[in-house]
Amino acid sequence: MPSFMAIVAPGLENISAKELKFYSKSLKTFGFEYNNINTIKGGVEFESSFEHGLLSNHFLKTPVRILYRWGQFQEVLRTNDIEKAFESLDWFELLKGFKPEFHVSSFKSKMFHLQKLKQACEMSYRRVKIKQNIEVVKNRTTQKVYVRLSKNKMTVSLDTTGELLYKRGQNKAVNEAPLRENIASSLLWWLSLQVNKSFNLLDPMCGSGTFLIESQNLYKTHTQRKFQYQLWSTDTRELKLPELDIKPLIQNAYGIEVNPNTFKTLSTNTKDFKNIELLQADCTQVSKTDLNLSDSLPLIVLTNPPYEKRLHLKQTLSQTLEAINSNFQPEALFYIYPIDQHRNKKPSLTFRSGGLNLGLFKYT
Questions:
Q1: I need a surface site. Which of 101, 208, 263, 359 has the fewest CB within 10 A?
Q2: Domain residue limits, the chain
Q3: How many CB atoms lie within 10 A of CB 314?
Q4: String of b and e for 202-213 (b: at least 16 CB within 10 Å)?
Q5: One fold for both 3-159 and 181-362?
Q6: CATH code linked to domain 181-362
Q7: Contact 198/215 with Cβ under 8 angstroms?
Q8: pLDDT in tens, 187-220
Q9: pTM of the model
Q10: Does domain 3-159 sit in CATH 3.30.2130.30?
């Protein structure tokens, strides 16, 4: 079967694999199959039909990009080997009218100089273009082609996504240092697996509302944007998405934000979500009654408090978390914080975001 790879934020690979397995099970009645799901550093490998692999862009929320593994080759030691490999690929069938943009990497391989490796790919393609009589089209759309050498084995992959997956197609305004949507979804997936029952979500320092919005979109398909594969000269543009009927574990999402300007952004971002409720306030000075929180479902707190130069809390982080826990009495309280500033606590998860090593910590 065709092979694909979902590119994932380092540290969150297992969560993405579980998301893919969930959809493999949920979509089985529609004839979808995602097989041989395997985690590697920075990604999740899987196999499926060509069409269903492409459609995974519409379902998956935790990766940033889906690559189609177009070709895999053994013993690639020199430029001639790259050219021979490229000759075996039908550039005209999939990529008619596209301009390849090569992205290269090398690990424990004879060809390790990245600039020379990229030049070798570009030169090989120019030669293959002549041999395969590929027509030249002006103002061609760029197609990212990923060439990875590992122990002299070469994998050529095509980007099927285009604009990164965390760009959901919604015109969402952002606050200072926002959490990317794919990471927010990963943490919400992890949280849902931990709780394993219906619950309400509270983000008491919610900024522009990423956790709130992602909680309501977790099982919805991407329909508000286009993907790179839809530009290819194949019949993939005719593929139809199945209508999923999945009951979300996160029922209602509540957000508190103290900054009035940020609250305006938050209100705009969330205005179309009926199960999101907001409150402009200092989260340490309000309680359940101020948000009209129901006791019919467990309450879980998940938040990304400000840190480093953004730390403008009136109290210390510890005091702030203690006040939130006391005021709202959640079943559990989780928060994100840089690991190097929290050495005395053990995180439930570790991951990288914005160049920082972050942890998801449970307040106790």
A1: 101
A2: 3-159, 181-362
A3: 10
A4: bbbbbbbbbbbb
A5: no
A6: 3.40.50.150
A7: no
A8: 999 999 999 999 999 999 999 999 999 999 999 8
A9: 0.92
A10: yes
